[in-house]
Amino acid sequence: MMRERELTYFKNKLVKIKQEMTKVIETNQPLSFEDYGELSSLDNHFADTASQLEDREVQSSINESAKHILNEVDEALERIQNGTYGICVETGKDIPVDRLKILPYAKRILEAQKRFDEAADSSTQIELSFSTPEDDKRGDQRLQTVDELQYEHGNSSFRIK
To answer: Where are the zinc-finger regions (dksA C4-type) in this chain (predicted)?
Structure first.
């Protein structure tokens, strides 16, 4: 069980992180063509458009990360209110204070977090392939996959000898 002084320390730390993430979200709004001094994208060189798209992707990624952290911080502040802060949501064991000092919104002990991350990683891995599945029922032999076309005709990275 955490003492009141420790809870106050972590609450202050979480509030500070919340303020920082809110500021990141507010100041990192997606750019429009007007932000680049353009009225439209029609007259842009493709390299300029690619740079703008990359900037927007980076901003989007930063916003998503900040929103995720903000959500985690809000949950941690709720756990402080409920009296469950510092207790692993999976195992019920106390989360080490050293872990909370590094990651104040941690909700699992390290071992439980590793299991959680491994389960999430294994569930999202999907084998992507352009090959025609062996059980394909279309029946049209004229359809060819990218792999078959590359083998038959070659391309810049795959040449028939």
So the answer is: 88-112
CA nearest neighbour of 143 among 155, 125, 131, 156: 131
What are the residues facing 155 on neighbouring strands?
Answer: 158
DSSP per position, 30-78 = PP-GGGGT-S-STTS-HHHHHHHHHHHHHHHHHHHHHHHHHHHHHHHHH
- List the pLDDT tens digit at each of the 161 positions of the chain: 678 999 999 999 999 999 999 999 888 876 554 555 554 545 566 676 677 778 888 888 899 999 999 999 999 999 999 999 999 999 999 999 999 999 999 999 999 999 999 888 776 655 555 565 666 666 555 555 666 666 666 665 555 55
Q: Which residues contact 63 (CB under 8 A, 6 or more apart)?
A: 24, 25, 28, 30
Q: What domains can you pick out in the chain, each with its CATH number? A: 4-110 (1.20.120.910)
Cα–Cα distance measured from residue 105 to residue 71, given in angstroms and rounded to the nearest whole number:
10
d(CA 136, CA 133): 5
